[in-house]
Design brief:
By secondary structure, this protein is of the alpha/beta class. It has four helices and eight strands; from the N terminus they run E-H-H-E-E-H-E-E-E-E-H-E. The strands form two sheets. It has a six-stranded mixed beta sheet. Strands 7-8 form a two-stranded parallel ribbon.
Length: about 160
């Protein structure tokens, strides 16, 4: 049962409440926000720190990139969020690294150099949301035809069948 009283927000509050979490220990100084809600830890990092944060949590014992997801918060800004779901088998802990991106510059560096399994996830987010991943080895559409116009999971994408 969800208990909103256990939800924590803010980097200092979350980090102070979870000193046993390896990601919390490792990401001191890289995070710009944090949230602990519904037994899930989310650490927000600036876009320019995503590769450093991915390498840091990997070195701290998080060994498995489970998923990468995109969210469109239109019409709010920052509009997009890319979230990396990472698991530590050693510590039996999960962490989500999240990066918020503005609609003016929806791009960040690819983490395929840290976790090669991010390849298809990043292509999917590029295809469906239009987020560009710099340094990706093969950034092209994966679900929609190459000639498709637009990104169908954007909330302002026309759903009436015409543009």
């Amino acid at each position: 049962m969800y208990d909103p009283a256990t939800a924590l927000t803010g980097t200092e509050a979350v980090f102070a409440a979870h000193p046993e979490n390896a990601a919390v220990v490792a990401l001191q100084g890289l995070a710009n926000d944090a949230k602990f809600d519904r037994d899930e830890l989310t650490i927000y990092v600036p876009r320019e720190s995503i590769i450093a944060a991915a390498k840091t949590v990997q070195a701290a014992g998080y060994n498995f990139l489970e998923d990468v997801t995109g969210v469109d918060w239109y019409p709010s800004e920052p509009r997009f969020q890319v979230t990396y779901h990472i698991l530590s088998h050693k510590f039996k802990q999960r962490v989500r690294l999240a990066v918020r991106l503005s609609s003016e510059d929806a791009s960040l560096d690819s983490i395929t150099s840290v976790w090669p399994s991010a390849n298809f996830y990043e292509r999917e987010i590029f295809d469906l949301f239009g987020v560009h991943f710099g340094g990706h080895p093969n950034l092209r559409r994966i679900m929609m035809p190459e000639e498709w116009q637009g990104h169908p999971l954007r909330k302002d994408y026309p759903v009436e069948g015409y543009r």
